[in-house]
Amino acid sequence: MFVLLPPSETKRSGGGFVPLALDSLAFPALTGRRSVLAGALAALAADQDATVRALKLGRTQLAEIDRNAALLSSPTTPVIDRYTGVLYDALAADTLSPAARTFAGSHLLVHSALLGPVGGLDLVPAYRLSHDSRLPGLPLKKHWAADVSAALEASAFDGSGGLLLDLRSEGYVSLGPAAEHPRRFFLRVVTEGADGRTRALNHFNKKAKGEFTRALLQNSQAFDSVDELLAWAPTAGFTLRPGAEGELELVVAGHL
Questions:
Q1: 242 by DSSP, 3-state: which?
Q2: Which among 34, 197, 214, 231 counts the fewest CB atoms within 10 Å?
Q3: Taxonomically, which superkingdom (predicted)?
Q4: Residue 43 burial (CB < 10 Å; 0-12/13-18/19+)?
């Protein structure tokens, strides 16, 4: 089973590990594309104006340029400890049990715009690059989509069974769609109004995804089928149900 998360634009600084080693990351078939993009992003940082345009930075975000300039030499930290923001605050990786962190190393993936999908405990630097960034001569969809899709398919559906739960936002799905497969499910966070109608959530969906992922990690069970997952969810306090074909709905109360 793999749980595939989006990244966050906000990240913690620093880290206690050696600089980025691209060949140490999950999905080694992506190493070449990672190298090209990391080199281009670090080089772009030499031109402040070009970087501001490419990354759509505001005046208070210029420190992100220094992060990018040093991304190949700055210290690293595990993926689940690097990202911040609503989803990752709810995940609260620093309070996970040792067993849950070990499980994250094998079963949690985060789709970085810079590095493609990486493992939960892979070591990464602080950087700034989003799915909608516009690097000169390197359109991210063209750079990533085909190879990321192939890597996900080869890893998740290699005959070993298990599920691929895709919790990414649409922007990151576009950088590497997961192929339709009986064991691939896209998770949508929804709520039900007093009128009985189901509505998708926007901001609050991040918190729900973080809480759900945390529970999966703490449970540390690699579900082989969606029926097993659906049976477990209420025992952990979640309402999870089938949605449209290839989708699951995580039902959250309120927030209308």
A1: strand
A2: 197
A3: Bacteria
A4: exposed
Which residues 6+ apart lie within 8 Å of 176 measured at CB?
111, 116, 117, 144, 145, 147, 148, 149, 151, 152
Phi, psi of 210 (to 5 degrees): -65, -45
Q: Where does the pLDDT of residue 254 fall: very low under 50, low under 70, confident under 90, or very high at 90 and above?
A: low
Cα 51 to Cα 2, 9, 35, 71: the distances in Å are 34, 15, 18, 14
Q: Which two tokens stand for residue 178?
A: 């997961």
> Distance between CA 212 and CA 218 in Å, rounded?
10
Q: Residue 164 has what DSSP assignment?
A: E
In which band, very low, low, confident or very high, does the pLDDT at 256 lie, cut at 50, 70 and 90?
very low
DSSP class of 19: S
Give CA–CA dist 150/158, Å, rounded.
11
Chain Cα centroid distance, residue 165 = 11
Cβ-contact 51, 128 below 8 angstroms = no
Residues 87, 214: contact at Cβ < 8 Å? no
What does the chain come to in residues? 256
